[in-house]
Write a structure and sequence with these properties.
By secondary structure, the chain is α+β, with helices and mostly antiparallel strands. Helix content is 42%, strand content 15%. The strands form three sheets. Strands 1, 4, 5, 6, 7 and 8 form a six-stranded mixed β-sheet that branches. Strand 4 and strand 5 form a beta hairpin. The longest helix is centred in the last third of the chain and has 26 residues.
Amino acid sequence: MPLRPMSREQAWLLPPTLGELIPMTHPARFVAEFVDSLEDREWAGMGIELDGPLEGAPAYHPRALLSAWVYGFMTGVRSCRKLEGACRDQVPYLWLTGWQHPDHNTLWRFYRQHRRAMRQLLKKTVRTAVVMGLVDLAVQAVDGTKITANASKHRTYDAKKLMSLLERTAAAIAQLEAQNEGAGDPPPPQLPQKLAEAKALRERVRGAMRQLEAEGAQGRINLTDSDAKLMKTRQGFVAGYNAQAMVSPLDSERAGERGLLITAAEVVTEAEDHGQLAPMMEAAEETSGIAAAVTLADAGYHSGANLQTCADRGDTVVMPESGQESLTNPYHKQHFTYVSETDSFICPQGRKLWFRGLKKRTGELPMRVYRGDGVVCRGCPAFGKCTTNRQGRVIETGPYEAVLREHRTWMTTPEATELYRQRKTLPEPTFGILKEQQRARHFLLRGLVNVADEWALLASAFNLRTLWKVWANQGGSRGWCVVAAA
């Protein structure tokens, strides 16, 4: 068949407008729709003035810069230099910026100055979905994922290694200073690069040692990012952070398709998740304005304190406990019946265990100790299965024993089993999209506060991806975000 003529010098006879190059349901159009729907008070809340000063050189419009950053986080373009390149040669960015080309310094100054306040965009996306009736808050699920910091794990030191590094650095500085001393020559106007770098390293090491001493712990610190901690991942240990997310599904009937929405996003330096359940539930309720009916969490969040907090708040939580298989043992203490009148337990064989006193462990709440009669236990047919202690079976209970037992019973119900099946369909796909499509496997910023800003903007961009699909299915109507916010 004949070939079409081709020329890279082909001129446009009728140059189209920028809008003609962007499909009506393109995500860039939704970003523009979302940014244009922000009210003056919301811009002011981010510390952004839409009316620039009358004097001086013209500045880039905040709408253009915010649109570029939001669309960049949606598509995995998160560094200033890559964003500069995209604004120069990618049509969606050219359309969003009005065919302007902000340089990386301009983009960075805008991001650095306003990223803290840009956290409110997450709440904006969630409230938009709530007002439109798109989010199903009958259930929500929380989970955490380890994300690598902008720092090498090999730069993590304990106090002993810091002292060794300080000694080596001091020796290197002394050697460099000796090399730069001349016979009667005046000192250089500025320090040589290697000497300046060595002295900067010495100050960082000294600062790290002071921080470790102030914390009063035999811990470790990373010289590149002092807030990053060594955390275990499937790829081994990394210097990173524990990024938390609360996720709710879309109402598929109202939205027209399935989707996910992040209703709370936080970053912590603790590798364990135990302490994050209640804060994440509170953050999700504050963001959406509505308390979810049921919260799903994995065993990493399970603790008696968390269950007690949920019980006090009236929250329903579906959460297995670690060592779940031990509950199948017919002689697990869960199968011992407590008798409040005599403050004793009845074992599955009908024998009594009496209260023997309190047991205290350092840093833990006291435990109540109950023990059976040694003679009775040794003569019991379950001896060897229930216990091998010749002095009698012992069980310990803490201050949360009642709520733990109640929750274990609840977890065996068909309702709890069916609800928990939904958990793997909520946070895990969310983290997969964030890491693969939004390039969130590594943080680009350093420091806990800055990383939290970055994670919040990633979550906002994730929600915008979800809302864009709904908007596109509804024909990409103009004013959609304005109606949603009304």
